[in-house]
Amino acid sequence: MNNRIRELRQQKGWSQADLATLLKVSRQTVNALERGRYDPSLPLAFNVARLFDLTIEDVFQPDQE
Amino acid sequence: MNNRIRELRQQKGWSQADLATLLKVSRQTVNALERGRYDPSLPLAFNVARLFDLTIEDVFQPDQE
DNA sequence: GCCATGTGTAAAGCAAACTTTACATATGCG
DNA sequence: CGCATATGTAAAGTTTGCTTTACACATGGC
């Protein structure tokens, strides 16, 4: 699962810590998501999309199978 | 997190076991999702949405906070 | 009544998501 | 140089998602 979190975050001029605060998760979680270490839970994916005013499909792209 | 899985499944005339097979998860997982016992992983949410030819936002509604 | 099918649920176990604490490295600025 | 900020990572622990096995109950058809 790819995502555009880093790109979207940088467009806003936010640090990983800033984004973590806004999402109410740890900075390590933001880092792990950006680096593709794991996928977010569905509720967190919704929070990310809403924060950037996008759909989940806009932010996350499932691997083509 | 609410979802329309049961409704969508019944529209197709599928049993929980049928849907589980199509999604490649266990029947208990389908049952738990329909009954709101937990949320699906993001990849599974994508699979559900694609199976019904809908967006994630069409199928899943986060609790209003 | 018997059997098949569909649904709900429980327990045990594994894997994935997330946390806290901690340390390393890089960059920029006084 | 010394310090602050940003990022990457690791280890250990908790919670959540999902599996397998198993059993209960309801409904409908023979």
TrEMBL record, chains A, B:
User: Which PANTHER family does the record cross-reference, listed alphabetically?
Assistant: DNA-BIDING PHAGE PROTEIN, TRACRIPTIONAL REGULATORY PROTEIN-RELATED-RELATED
- Identification of the protein by name: Putative transcriptional regulator
> In Gene Ontology terms, what is one molecular function of this protein?
DNA binding
Q: Where are the transmembrane segments?
A: none
Matching CDD domains? HTH_XRE
Domain HTH cro/C1-type residues, every copy = 5-59
Source superkingdom: Bacteria
One Pfam match: HTH_3
Keywords assigned: DNA-binding
Task: Read off the SUPFAM superfamilies from this record.
Answer: lambda repressor-like DNA-binding domains
Q: What is the lineage of its organism?
A: Bacteria, Pseudomonadati, Pseudomonadota, Alphaproteobacteria, Rhodobacterales
Q: Which PROSITE patterns match?
A: HTH_CROC1
